[in-house]
Specification:
34% of the residues lie in helices and 23% in strands. By secondary structure, the chain is of the alpha/beta class. The strands form two sheets. The chain has a nine-stranded mixed beta sheet, with helices on both faces. Strands 3-2-6-7 form a four-stranded mixed beta sheet.
């Protein structure tokens, strides 16, 4: 039991705490900082993909996590399999696709939102049979991303899995990491996201995400949160960089603002995944949304000071420490 667990009962009632479904890919991150990939010359290779990062981060905070994802039958696929196994994530449900190479993303290292180019192949090949009912019945959280939902056949497969997960009493979660580079049809994206949120999902999104999703850099936090609650989201967590996060729950009846932890940024890639890993870990521990937001801010701060993915175990003291 977490040192910050509230009086509410733990939500860890099943064998698997988190089932993440979506992209597992290779991040090629520039060695030097750059605002545009045309400036990059050297790249470092890291395991990536938001659902995979989330599952790995949550495994490091003591959760039992599993990932459903597709990789190619190639060296990069083997690299990802090994990296996932080393992270402590259950990799039994990874699928090797014979005729598609592993997905790669070139990313510019930066303290802000990075420039990127995605070369997508195997990640989008998730099929309904890759998401078995018995696994859904054993999972507490079912999580995916806009990236994963943006391509077929993965989109239909993940939505079908979400419907079945809800029937089995599994809580839905989504990272709305929308980008027009990945999903050019905003209207279609909004319809799919609304469909996913409708049974009462937990939603994580950033200001950059909402500006891109609604094609409006001036859209207000209040309007976005209202839209997602209208779509059916039970809880909406909006991350706002140095301004911290804003959490709205009970379908918009309650709010909390969480300041960001001030740190020297080494690498911002994956900070959102770290935040949501901390948040969901605290959620599973039975905590209230304000404590979940604190845990998210703490884990994001640790990631921001670390180049590449997080490594090692994350203690409850670090996750829930006041500051």
């Amino acid at each position: 039991m977490s040192p910050k667990q509230s009086s509410a009962a733990s939500r860890r009632r099943r064998e698997i705490d988190l089932l993440a479904v979506g992209e597992l890919l290779v991040d090629l991150i520039s060695h030097e900082e750059c605002n545009d990939l045309s400036e990059a010359r050297d790249f470092h290779c890291y395991p990536g993909g938001s659902p995979a990062n989330l599952a790995a981060n949550m495994a490091r905070t003591g959760n039992r996590t599993a990932l459903i994802a597709c990789v190619g039958d190639d060296g990069m696929g083997a690299f990802l399999r090994q990296s996932l196994a080393e992270s402590g994530v259950i990799s039994d449900y990874m699928v090797t696709v014979a005729d598609k190479p592993t997905t790669l993303i070139l990313i510019g290292k930066t303290a802000g939102t990075p420039d990127f180019i995605a070369y997508r192949m195997a990640d989008r090949m998730i099929l309904p049979e890759h998401i078995p009912d018995d696994l859904l019945e054993r999972s507490s959280l079912y999580h995916t991303t806009c990236f994963a939902l943006s391509r077929h056949p993965a989109q239909e497969s993940i939505l079908d899995g979400a419907r079945r997960a809800k029937r089995f009493g599994c809580q839905l979660s989504i990272d709305v990491n929308y980008s027009p580079k990945i999903w050019s049809n905003r209207q279609a994206a909004q319809l799919v996201i609304a469909n996913y949120c409708s049974p009462g999902a937990l939603v994580k999104l950033s200001r950059d995400d909402i500006a891109r999703l609604f094609d409006d850099p001036e859209i207000s936090d209040e309007n976005v949160i209202s839209v997602f609650h209208e779509w059916g989201a039970e809880l909406v967590c909006l991350t706002r960089g140095e301004q911290g996060s804003l959490v709205s729950w009970d379908h918009g009846k309650q709010r909390h603002e969480q300041p960001a932890r001030p740190v020297k940024v080494v690498d911002a890639t994956g900070a959102g995944d770290a935040f949501w890993a901390g948040f969901l870990t605290a959620y599973l521990d039975g905590n209230t949304p304000p404590t979940c937001a604190l845990a998210g801010a703490n884990l994001a701060a640790i990631k921001l000071q670390h180049a590449g993915p997080l490594s090692g175990k994350i203690s409850g003291k670090k996750l829930y420490g006041e500051w």
